[in-house]
Amino acid sequence: MRTFAALLLLTAPSLFADGGTVQLRKEVGPYLITVFTAPEDISVLIQNRTSLQPILDADVLIRIGETQLHATHQAAQNKLLYAAPLAAEEPGKLDFTIDVNHGSIVSGTLNIAQPAPMLASNWEYLALPPVFILLFAVREWLVRRRAILVR
Amino acid sequence: MDPVAAAVLASWRLDLRLLCLLALAAWIYARGWRQLHRDMPQRYPLSRLIAFLAGLVFVFIALASPLDAFGGLLLQVHMIQHLLLLMVAPALILFGQPVLAFMRGLPRSWLKEGIGPFLTWPALRRFGRAITHPAVCWMAMAVAIVFWHLPRFYELGLRSQAWHEVQHACFFSAATLFWWPVVQVWPGHARWHRGAMIPYLIAADLVNTALSAYLSFSDHVVYPSYLLAPRLGGISALDDQATAGAIMWVPGSVAFLLPAVILTVQLFNPAPSRSRLGYGKQSKPSRDRQGAVARDFLQLPIVRHRYFRRIAQTVMLVLAAAVVIDGLFGTQVAPMNLAGVLPWTYWRGFAVIALLTCGNLFCMACPFTLPRDLGRRFLPARHRWPPWLRSKWIAIVLLLAYLWAYEAFSLWDSPWWTAWIVIGYFTTAFVVDGLFQGASFCKYVCPIGQFHFVNSLVSPLEVKVKEPKICDSCSTHDCLHGNEQQRGCELNLFQPTKHGNFDCTFCLDCVHACPQDNVGILRVAPASTLLKDRRLYKRKDVIALAMILVFGAFVNAAGMTGPVMMWLQRLGSMKMVYYAAALLLPALLVWRSGEITRRFMLALVPIGFSMWTAHFLFHLLSGWSPPLQILLLDGGLLLTLYLIWRIAAGLNHRIPWATLAVALYCAGIWILSQPMQMRGMVMN
């Protein structure tokens, strides 16, 4: 069945970073955990609580509703982050839990919105034919105008 | 290397759209530069090419490198990204003098027929002169820098990817305008004295300095979003902002003041006069623009080889044998069987890519005709194909039967049936061509061949005569009749009178038979045959074939979408009536059509081919890739509309046919937006 991409409705002041918008930042155990969400993925930055040095060898497990995913560096553009694809069947509120190294846990709630329709998310490609037709019409007008002027 | 540093350096973004755009720009520029470098080596030295390409590389670095990945976390990184887009990339690109290079790099017909009328449009020229006036250019840069650094608008770019892209586009376009009078882009002329560019640059630096001083010395974080960002390496948001200000101040000022210094030096040490450098000199037309012999793709060493076709056919024959063996004796789970995967997923996908980018390469490498050629030692093919069967009707019936059987027997899901179809193909080709002369199977029977013949009318390459004058003096016509060493065209295509790819299997027999070496694989305007070759639309069988393939593309793809599948399930056994009606009705309309109507029908081939390509790429790529497939449909629609426009010159039939083309396009877009059955794959 069709899998809906998730679009997040943002409530708190937020920042668009590589990983998306900052959802929460929390100190848990020896870590400072920052969670980002983007329309298509959820990503996590784990730092040493005191030195703020990024930790790159953690085991990060993300639970969203019934789904459980391993977040990896491969899935993120910013390789300091751990990311996992965000796939929700339906729009609505979903609880998430992030478990770092089997014990340091943060949790929160995501607002999953209806995904943007395919037509809306590809508007620039759909706009190409009208743009080219318009340019062609202008070109034809110019050519005819020039022919009249020459005559 | 420190693992954190390694992770930072590995944070690149693979942006295919950006890469394609930059590669296209580089390719067009390089084509133009090559000609200009030959005609005006002093005006277009190697440094121009290097500068232009370096500018493109900096655009890529700004938008896809770790600078982009970390720009949202550290203001100083974001600042470097913006400086590249404002001060480095545009200046380098303009130093490459791209206007003339782009004009020379485009195909001549595009420049003359497409862009030419715009270039001579007085209103556009006035607009161009107005926006490249130094005062306007300076204001554009100053406004862009100040506006986008106001906290409200900078925050907008930080919170929304779309606005971030708008911000980058504003920076790049404003900076391009700013550097335009400084670099003095040719063939425009200087509006202000060169000396005036020195205060122009210094004044811009004052704006830059004021802004960077504000960032550096501010006692609060100007952009609140950075307060929320995790602090990497323990740098506070305020320190990060001060560093960003320093970066904007020092390297930014260098970017403005260094050209000012160079200009000052130039003013005191005048360079060689413009005429000595080739400015304003009438450029000598290069060989390419004098209509020299078009490039023959047979010059590629591998393609030229006499046994190239045989080798390609042998590879395909081995694959076909593997399909038969696995189909008959292997597991009957289609995604785990070669007969379920190779023909239905890979072969169809690669065949349409070949048609789109080259030509009828499938027929060139056809495995079915290889055993036939070997078998002719035993079956000497004495008979001539009956004249009353010399049309496409047998192939049309077989094509309809195939499209019906594909749905009725779920052929994609049955390795056993697939293997028997391949065996049937080999047998039929062997028998037909064993009994009848020439390539009767290819020309009159093979439904796959007809698919390729029709859709290769849109292909950009064609087997054709290189120099028509040479053929005028030819009396032997070896390309058609052959000679002692090489057989001629088995499909009876006479090269000097042949138009387009219809009925051409790319077998290259004519190429090897021509004693003058006057036949090659040459570039042609896609679909131009549909306008030129009158013989095509005089034949009702050809038009019926084209119509079945056009409507078949949409019917076949729609049959895999969720809503249509559910509707067909409700129809039950009546669904075959739907398929028959959807495919047969357009073909039957041909009976009642006149010649003009048939010309319009043929104009629909590009939109049909674009749907086939989008559909088969769905299987090859294991899913929809909307930008690519929408672009394919865009191209198909525009080409079809252009053909309708050309055909309809002086006629009033344009609107209904254009409406039909747009309706097919909308149907294609609707299909792309639906969930599809992943036939032949594990995820089915």
Describe the 3D structure.
The complex is a heterodimer of chains A (151) and B (684). Chain A is of the alpha+beta class. Chain A has helices at residues 118-121, 123-126, 128-150; strands spanning 7-8, 21-28, 31-37, 41-48, 60-64, 67-71, 81-85, 92-100, 104-113. Chain A has three helices and nine strands; from the N terminus they run βββββββββααα. Chain A has a five-stranded antiparallel sheet with strand order 1-9-8-5-6, with no helix packed on it. In chain A, strands 2-3-4-7 form a four-stranded antiparallel sheet, with no helix packed on it. In chain A, strand 5 (60-64) and strand 6 (67-71) form a beta hairpin. Chain A starts with 6 loop residues before the first strand and ends with a helix. Chain B is an all-alpha fold and 684 residues long. Chain B has helices at residues 3-9, 16-39, 46-64, 66-70, 75-95, 98-105, 108-119, 122-131, 134-149, 151-159, 161-183, 197-217, 225-228, 237-268, 274-277, 301-304, 308-329, 338-357, 361-364, 369-375, 393-408, 415-435, 440-445, 447-455, 468-472, 478-481, 509-513, 529-532, 534-538, 540-558, 562-571, 575-589, 595-602, 605-620, 626-647, 654-672; strands at 461-465, 519-523. Mean pLDDT of chain B is 88; it is low at 275-292. Chain B has a two-stranded antiparallel ribbon with strand order 1-2. Chains A and B meet through strand 2, helix 1 and helix 3 of A and helix 1, helix 4, helix 7, helix 10 and helix 13 of B.
